[in-house]
Every structure is written in C-alpha cells, then in structure tokens.
Design a protein that fits this description.
By secondary structure, this protein is mostly helical. The chain has 13 helices and three strands. The chain folds into two domains: 80 residues, Tyrosine recombinase, N-terminal domain (DNA polymerase, domain 1, Orthogonal Bundle), CATH 1.10.150.130; 175 residues, hpI Integrase, Chain A.
C-alpha cells in the first residue's frame, strides 16, 4: 500500500502539479486509510464502507469525511487507470450529503427588546429609520440586499411590497400594519429620494454595511449581544416565528423567495427543536425527571 501511495504522490507532483498543501492532505488521508486496512490484499468496496463507518463512529464532520473520500477516489482512479488494480473499489461509493446548518435565530422576547431600544435614539429621524429597518427585516423577512434597494414605488395599496430578489425574480410580500404607519413617518423626515433608504447622496441608496451598523447600534442599546444580531438573523427569526405561530410552509416559501421548498423546510427543524425544549422545560413528566435527578 505504501508503495502505491508513493507512486500516486509522485503523480500529483509531476503530472498534476498539485500544491504542497493538496499533496500533504492526500498523503495524510491515504496513510490513515492504509493503517486502517493493515493488509496487502487488494482493497475491496467493503473495506471502504468499513472505513467510512469508523469515521462516522468517531463523530467526524461530513466535510472532513468528504475530503478523505476525495483523496481515496483520486487515488484508486489513478491506480485503476495505470492498471495497478483490477477494479476500482470506489466505483459505487457515494459522497455523504452535506449537513445543512440550522439557521441562527433569536427568541421573540429579544425582538421585543430590539423594538423597544429604538426609543433610546436621540434623533427622531434615526429612531424612525431603525423602526422601519426592523419591521422590514423581521416583519417581512427581507434580505439585506432587498432592503437597501427598496423604492417607494415598490409598495402597493399599503398592503404589499414588491421585492426583486435573487436572480431578479419578483415576489410580492404582505407587510404589517405598523410598517405602513412607520413608512409614512419616515417619508416626512427623510430627504426626498426614490429610495426608501437613501445614502448621504439621495441619488444612491444606503449600503449593506450601514444597515449592519444600525442593527448593532440597536442591539447595543437593547442590551442584546451584538454578535447575535444581523439582517439574516432577523430574516431567520421571521420565518421561524411565523411557522411556530401556524403559518403553512408553502406560504413562507413564497414570502422568503426560496426556489426550493427544501430550503424553507430547514426552519421546521428549528421549530421542532423549539417544541422539544418546551416539552422538556414545562411538561410535568419532564419536571418530574428533573426533580429525580
């Protein structure tokens, strides 16, 4: 096995001109596999699956397992092409599916703290703008890129806002009543512009960085950890809270502008986790178990 690994490494260096990091990484993963096999017999598919099972038992991240499989795939492909092995044991081995991380969200009481914190702004204009940003991100689930590019002409009948999302795809999102009142207040104090959130130059809109700064300022005033608040966290909170309160998945998909409902379904995992915590914290049987412990 070691001789074959050395041949493959030489191939990487001389013919594929691979970087030193790539070569080092492949060698490390292949040597680990070689130690696992502990045999000079030709590797079979069953050896690969046993190795994978061991990696899973070790609790390795999916990304790390995929990297090791990539090294094995390239290695055995090379050996098969060079006729150094009779069959490729990686032929029917599939890559594990990447784990989609659960979105970071905040509780409704945190949102309430953020909303109350805008009262601490000394300038009325800053307060109204902060309110409007919160209502659009949390109340309508907008992306920060969609927020900054909003125009007054995008609002229809004081009930909906037309959003141009990823890939210039248009969607219509209902807006909370409070948002309309706040929008009217903002129009009275904001410099004239086609943009809802104009920059210092009315011909341009506010930057993404400025929105992040405003949110951090709100979080600081509220006493909430500033590292836990961002435009995307508020968008996640919108989706999760509306599902927890009974909204159907398809409606939420449309409001968020997701192409695939599988993307929206990740929020159902968050709500299930929340429900599990509720049961564990408040159900009498769970309380009984805690007392016993």
């Amino acid at each position: 096995m070691q001789n074959l690994i050395e041949l493959f490494v030489e191939h990487l260096k001389s013919e594929r001109n691979s970087s030193a990091n790539t070569v080092s990484s492949y060698m490390r993963d292949l040597n680990e596999f070689s130690l696992f096999i502990k045999s000079d017999k030709e590797v079979q598919q069953e050896d690969i699956t046993a190795f994978l099972a061991t990696l899973n038992e070790q609790g390795l991240k999916t990304s790390s397992i995929k990297r090791k499989l990539c090294a094995l795939r390239q290695f055995f492909k090379f050996l098969y092409q060079e006729k150094l092995i009779k069959s490729n044991p990686m032929r029917f081995i599939r890559q594990p599916k990447s784990e989609r991380p659960l979105p970071k969200i905040v509780d409704e009481n945190v949102i309430e703290k953020l909303k109350n914190a805008t009262n601490f702004f000394t300038e009325e204009k800053d307060k109204v703008r902060a309110d409007l940003i919160l209502y659009l991100l949390y109340g309508s689930g907008l992306r920060v890129s969609e927020l900054i590019s909003l125009k007054y002409s995008d609002f229809a009948d004081n009930k909906f806002v037309r959003i141009f999302g990823k890939g210039s795809k248009e969607r219509v999102v209902p807006i909370p009543h409070k948002l309309i009142d706040t929008l009217m207040l903002w129009k009275n104090v904001c410099p004239p512009s086609v943009w809802i959130f104009p920059s210092t130059t009315p011909k341009k809109h506010i930057s993404r960085q400025r929105v992040f700064q405003i949110l951090k300022q709100i979080a600081q005033l509220s006493g909430v950890d500033t590292t836990k608040i961002s435009p995307h966290v508020l968008r996640h909170a919108f989706a999760t809270h509306i599902l927890e309160n009974g909204a159907d998945l398809l409606s939420v998909k449309k409001m968020l502008g997701h192409q695939d409902i599988a993307t929206t379904e990740i929020y159902t995992h968050v709500t299930r986790k929340h429900l599990k915590q509720v049961v564990e914290n408040f159900h009498p049987l769970s309380q009984h178990e805690k007392i016993k412990k």
